[in-house]
Amino acid sequence: MVAQYTGSGLLPGESAGSGGSVRGYLLNRAKPHLPPWLAVGGVGLAGALGNWRWSDSSAAGVGLTLASVALTGVTWWAGKSTSAQRRLHSAITVAAGSAWVTAACLAGPTTGPIDDLYLMGGPAVALSWNVRMVMRRNDATGESGDKGLLEKVGLARAQIGTATVEPNRVTAPVALAPGEQTNDDMAKALGNLASALDLPTSAVRYTPDPDSNRRGDLVIVPEDMLADTVEWEGPSNLGGSIADPLDVGRYDDGAPLLLWLPGDPDAGRNSTHLLIAGGTGSGKGDTALNLLTEILSRRDVVVWFSDPKAFQDFAPLRPGLDWGVEGGTDTEMLVEAVKAAIPARTRWLGAHGYRQWTPTAAQQQSDPEHSCRSDGRACGCEGMPFLVSWFEEAANTLRALGDDAFTGIAQEARSAGISLVVSLQRPSYDQMSTSTRASLPSVIALGCDARDEGFSLPDEVLAAGAHPGAWGNRRPGYCYIVSPGIPEDRYPSPGRTRRFTRRAVPVMELLATWVQRNAPAADPVTAGAAVGVVGNAYTGRATADGPQPTALRALPEEDDMHHGGPLVDPEDAGIDPEADLPGAEDGDDAPIFGQESGRKPSPEEARELFAAALEEFEQNGQMIVGPKDFTDWCDRNQLSRPWVSARLKEAAVDGRLQATNTTGRWRIVPALAAA
Fold first, then answer.
1. Beta pairing partners, 624
2. Average pLDDT for residues 4-26, to the nearest whole number?
3. Per-residue pLDDT tens for 41-89?
4. CA 389 from chain center: how many Å?
5. 298 Cβ partners below 8 Å, 6+ apart?
6. How far apart are CA 409 and CA 404, in angstroms?
7. Which helix H or strand E contains 324, and what residues bound it?
């Protein structure tokens, strides 16, 4: 029977309980160190054979000398791509070995000191290579002796420690030369490192050690796992809490792309606001859909949503929104409602013993520790869901309301259990105020112009290797996420959100129906604050069996083929276009100019008309007004716009109106509140 090697270190014929396992282990450990000793033996054999062949040949002496010099030169030339130490060590070894072979061939391996040189120098040279191998693989120091890669990028004296290998991700600690190199030098060399490894710039990142200016982790992702598009198939955690992570895609190493909106006092994570920034064609719409579907699928959150694009991308989800508006005056009212909700929600949370919103705040308050009663008994108050106030295409809103429209919300809303989500293409200083931008700590940065990278990501993340400007609009959905709860070494790691196709529309509609039937409506405190400032403009989310928001495609298909059918004014709807025109009647030739314009109302009557106009606006749900909204009313009542402006200021003094952040725009105080 033939014994087989099992990989356990046993030699043929030895059992696990014998001492052979030790010999096998030692043999396996010694194998990597045998080549230098075999080379020494080969040199001795070559000297002996050469002497037998060429002992009396002067021509052989010349040839062997020339060969020795040539071999040493070739070794020096071939080692130019390695480290200086390895090149010198190799050249000295070859020169010593070839010189001894030449002497042994001509004079004899046992002549004079030749045999002594062999017996002393051979083991010394072999041991020098063994020592070099041990030093190179010494895990105790965590340093590598082969720094050829770093030499190419100008960091020759830097040292790379033992790498941690994960699926499609290699992480290696780097120690730069003390007093000569800093983490900034490493960050500047990332582009050259990517070039040396033949990888894209985004595949090489560096995370500095916060406790050292010369140490950090070098991360290399050799394969781009984001190249394949992944379609959205549904929310990741239907019925979960908004405090659970929101899964919006995956990183380039295959890990899930997660973020959080509420804070977690146990984990030390703060609540956050979010900026979604990306140029045209960067996949910002799909990214927003990934996030919004995750939010709506949670059981303890309501969403107030503004979209000046009339819900072009979000129409299937609109029935699931607690409040959805289409920009303009309606967005002004939503902003004012959020501002009013902040102190109301903060007061409620404080009265119930919450320093910040947690999932228990969304439940009925049956715990005495979270009671607003003074006697220490459970109050039983209705819970308060988390609130997400989302402003899509926010550049439109900022142009209308001013660049600091969201500043107050961004600075105060987090403690009230409110997250602000702002989505726009270019978050530059001429779009939003620096105070607002500084109050948006989280960002999803998609492809953009290279000159706009600094507006989207912090400088330290860009220095670590993040480069959204490299994508532009060529890689939709590619993004970087910076947010509390995400490890900092993940900040410069690119990810990609899932793609929404037409196949996703029925799933989104089902999700909106689920929200109507299972998710909570706004709590009385939040809803009361909204109604207190915008009146019946806030209606809350429609139920599954109630009236639905106006559909974007409400026309029959046959009318849609004719571009929406004929555009007919309502007062002319009964006119038959085929009927003959009526004949001339008396008065048709009377002049229409130069006649009396009618009686102008007295000041008292005009003020009564103005009060009635405010009531009409309030009944129609338009709670933000200005002189331009009274244009038709002025024409009907023969009053000028300056007169209206004066009445607006008087109404503000009387408490019927309240100034907004926008000059010339006033918020109507509901009649009951004003009284």
1. 667
2. 49
3. 888 888 888 888 887 777 877 788 888 888 888 888 887 777 778 888 8
4. 19
5. 237, 239, 240, 241, 242, 244, 519
6. 10
7. strand 323-325
Contact between residue 307 and residue 326 where contact means Cβ atoms under 8 Å apart: yes
Query: Which one, of 158, 157, 160, 191, lies nearest residue 173 by Cα?
Result: 160
**396 and 364 Cβ atoms separated by less than 8 Å:** no
Distance CA 464, CA 219 (A): 10
Is the pLDDT at 261 greater than 70? The verdict is yes
Instruction: Specify burial of residue 493 (Cβ count, 10 A radius: 0-12, 13-18, 19+).
Output: buried
Cβ 232 vs Cβ 238: under 8 Å = no
Sheet containing strand 666-668, edge to edge, reads 624-625, 666-668, 657-659
Distance CA(620)–CA(429), nearest Å, equals 36
Q: Break the chain down into helix, strand, coil percent, rounded to 5.
A: 45, 10, 45
In single-letter form, the type of residue at position 450 comes to A
Q: 144 with 126: CB under 8 angstroms?
A: no
Residue with tokens 């989500």: 421
| Run of H or E residues at 573 | none
Domains of the chain: 26-136 (no CATH), 148-220 (3.30.980.40), 246-371+379-534 (3.40.50.300), 601-675 (1.10.10.10)
127-175 pLDDT, tens digit each: 888 888 877 654 434 444 445 677 778 787 888 888 888 877 888 899 9
The pTM is what?
0.65
Q: How far apart are CA 186 and CA 196, in angstroms?
A: 14
**pLDDT bracket for residue 578 (50, 70, 90):** low
Residue pair 552/310 in contact by the 8 Å Cβ criterion: yes
Q: Does residue 446 have a pLDDT over 80? A: yes
- Token reading at 94: 């070859």
Average the pLDDT over 366-383 and give the result: 90
Do residues 245 and 290 make contact, with C-beta atoms less than 8 angstroms apart? no
Orientation of helix 284-296 relative to helix 505-518, angle to 10°: 30
Distance CA 650, CA 675 (A): 15
CB of 101 closer than 8 Å to CB of 12: no
Average pLDDT, the chain: 82
Give the ranges where 404-458 is alpha helix by DSSP (H). 407-412, 434-438, 453-456
Comparison of pLDDT for 250 and 127, the residue scoring more: 250
For residues 260 and 247, what is the distance between their CA atoms, to the nearest angstrom? 9
CB atoms within 10 A of CB 315: 20
